[in-house]
Write a structure and sequence with these properties.
InterPro entries: GHMP_kinase_C_sf, Mev_decarb, Mev_diP_decarb, MVD-like_N, Mvd1_C, Ribosomal_Su5_D2-typ_SF, Ribsml_uS5_D2-typ_fold_subgr. The protein has 326 residues and is α+β, with helices and mostly antiparallel strands. Helix content is 37%, strand content 25%. A hairpin with a 4-residue loop joins β3 and β4. Bound molecules: adenosine-5'-diphosphate (ADP) and ligand DP6.
């Protein structure tokens, strides 16, 4: 017998206040609360089938069977679902990433959120958004936030049961992003490894924690006021502090390429021209602009002087997790 889900879609999210460090590695409990915007441009569609004829779990992304490491991440979610639903069959996961995988464009966020949705659906579990967020979190921390559209905050909590994301704001105002993809290849230092290294070795980590708490409170009030300048300034600072931690780790590492710096300088130039535009970066060399959605077309045109059009993607706030009806 096969228990097959419909296709489930989850969008990526980009953190404005970064999650960069775990308190508990196994349960994926973070050191600080984080806050993100879910985007329409990048997403994952996933279908799960529990099948009594399978003799192992298999994960296909874009038709390619994935290695042990990616499978193990997915199996954390499969095992939790199997336990809850008392299912003993192996599963086949079919997934389509409309986002480059492992390139700092948050494929793990959309990928593991879509998997949480599809696996629980295939198992016949009727989970609330909060339960889905907790389940997605066990696969990849940032996935907890991709359950919701607009702005979401992942509350770090103190245990498996209360470390969960909640919706903060629909982001139905003039805010948008523009991605400058300088490289969509796989990164050398995964997020999991990078954050582990800074927690263990950066002498600045305590400073990160205290300033993240302040940044979070400030950005929530700026979001309420729909103040793009304050939101952008705080998000840019949070990202740069995260990258400063990486430089201060032992051994030090960074995700920047020469083209990242070119893109970062562009953002500064735009600001000098009067645009309210800011940058954020994750565990990869790509630079993401935050600004007024209504100005993104103009910035896109200006960036065409420096980058190819395939490198530029405009993104608007996106929706939460959804089941695709056939
Ligand atoms: P990214 O910046 O893309 O999030 P990470 O290295 O943090 O990069 O995460 C990439 C990992 O997330 C992949 O190696 C894989 O384990 C997992 N992943 C990505 N997409 C999917 C998917 N669609 N289904 C299941 N797992 C996925
Ligand atoms: C830089 O969620 O990919 O994107 O929990 O180890 O799977 P794991 O890490 P992951 O880390 C995301 C880090 C970040 C910042 C963020 O999204 O908050």
């Amino acid at each position: 017998m096969i228990k097959q889900s419909k296709w489930v879609r989850a969008h990526t999210n980009i953190a404005f206040i970064k999650y960069w460090g775990k308190e508990n590695e196994e349960l994926i409990l973070p050191k600080n609360n984080s806050l993100s915007l879910t985007l329409d441009a990048f997403y994952t569609d996933t279908q799960v089938s529990f099948d009594e004829d399978l003799n192992k779990d298999i994960l296909f992304i874009d038709g390619e069977e994935q290695d042990e490491k990616a499978l193990n991440k997915a199996q954390v979610i499969l095992d939790l679902v199997r336990e809850e639903a008392d299912i003993h069959d192996f599963a086949r996961i079919d997934s389509k990433n409309h986002v480059p995988t492992a390139a700092g464009l948050a494929s793990s966020a959309s990928g593991l959120a879509a998997l949480a949705g599809a696996a629980s659906l295939a198992a016949g579990l009727d989970l609330s958004k909060e339960e889905l967020s907790r389940l997605a979190r066990r696969g990849s921390g940032s996935a907890s936030r991709s359950i919701y559209g607009g702005f979401a905050e992942w509350e770090k909590g103190t245990s498996d049961s209360n470390s969960v994301a909640i919706p903060i704001d629909k982001a139905d105002w003039d805010i948008g992003m523009l991605f400058i993809i300088v490289d969509d290849g796989k990164k050398d230092v995964s997020s999991t490894e990078g954050m582990r290294r800074v927690v263990e070795t950066s002498p600045y980590y305590e400073g990160w924690i205290s300033s993240a708490t302040e940044d979070l409170a400030a950005i929530k009030s700026a979001i309420k006021k729909q103040d793009i300048v304050e939101v952008g300034e705080i998000a840019e600072r949070s990202a740069l502090k995260m990258h400063a931690l990486n430089l201060s780790a032992n051994p030090p590492f960074n995700y920047w390429s020469p083209e990242s710096i070119v893109a970062m300088r562009k953002v500064e130039e735009f600001r000098n021209q009067g645009y309210s535009v800011y940058l954020t970066m994750d565990a990869g060399p790509n630079v993401k602009l935050i600004g007024k959605a209504s100005q993104m077309d103009e910035l896109y045109q200006a960036l065409l002087e420096t980058f190819r059009k395939e490198q530029l993607v405009i993104a608007k706030p996106g929706p939460g997790i959804q089941i695709l009806e056939d």
